[in-house]
């Protein structure tokens, strides 16, 4: 029960704080901590993009923007994603510009869900999905991927749907995945798409890390299932523009029109300045993800190799910029206690696996998005502490 004199919304009153933010709060007062927690790219925004943002300020682009998104940005987004991911969006009515994918997922849930509808979420997963789902009145139906190399399969989807005790309205699939970095081949996705087509449920595909796929071509589920899919993406990860809060929802124009009503109630519009910068990112800054991808691939190889040497059992990521790894056996099965110990004694912050799923309590997630120097220093500290018992002072 609430301690407030007047009542609150019961759902909000009972809502627990996001476990990622909760863990961060528990270690925030530790001095000289190297943060390998958040998915925050360490690259500065490209100078060409910043130049356009500065021009936007100088030209007083500070008024209300088009609530669906500025026309030139939506046109550029359709062109960019059609070209890069072989999609076939018809035009600017097929896209909605949101305050990052965070707002986008809330808009989608609030548009398609009735109270009590079930949404399949493969786990481990990005924990704020659950918060957004709860606020929209939906119920999570977890799909455990930990015993299948952290991938969903047609069989696991069928099993989850058949065993669900509530109506399944949608499935939310994120790939390359946070926290594991796994992704799917075209053949794997086609088999998944064939299964989902039979069940006629909404397919929410969060492909925010699509541009950070290390080998092969990323295939969008929207390409395979356009009639029942909703594509979420943005510029935070591909163009290191987390603070600009640019997300895109792609879907059939009739569905976009319904989601626009929800978006206008939540945020009305994304700032004009940020939309101008986003337009630059999708045009003159189109090549930005290429050099970021090279740096991430190099860091991934260095991190995975070092972790194996230290006794970890990492999942080798195929995309994004995280390594999800079992902690060394000698430290037991409590990844949370291990992460706290690492923060206090080695001054390196990582996230416990239980923040992403109850099925992975002996895992941690390490982000290698920050910088080469931070990653090298963090691994040096970890090695000294784990192998030699040397605490970082």
UniProtKB/TrEMBL annotation:
Keywords: Aminotransferase, Pyridoxal phosphate, Transferase. It comes from Oenococcus sicerae. Belongs to the class-I pyridoxal-phosphate-dependent aminotransferase family. PROSITE patterns: AA_TRANSFER_CLASS_1. The keyword Transferase applies. PANTHER family: AMINOTRANSFERASE, ASPARTATE AMINOTRANSFERASE. Gene3D superfamilies: Aspartate Aminotransferase, domain 1, Type I PLP-dependent aspartate aminotransferase-like (Major domain). Signal peptide: none annotated. One of its GO terms (biological process) is amino acid metabolic process. CDD domains: AAT_like (cd00609). It is an enzyme of class 2 (transferase). Residues 32-381 form the Aminotransferase class I/classII large domain. Its cofactor is pyridoxal 5'-phosphate. Its EC number is 2.6.1.-. GO terms for molecular function: pyridoxal phosphate binding; transaminase activity. The keyword Nucleus does not apply. InterPro entries: Aminotransferase_I/II_large (IPR004839), AspAT/PAT-like (IPR050596), NHTrfase_class1_PyrdxlP-BS (IPR004838), PyrdxlP-dep_Trfase (IPR015424), PyrdxlP-dep_Trfase_major (IPR015421), PyrdxlP-dep_Trfase_small (IPR015422). This is Aminotransferase.
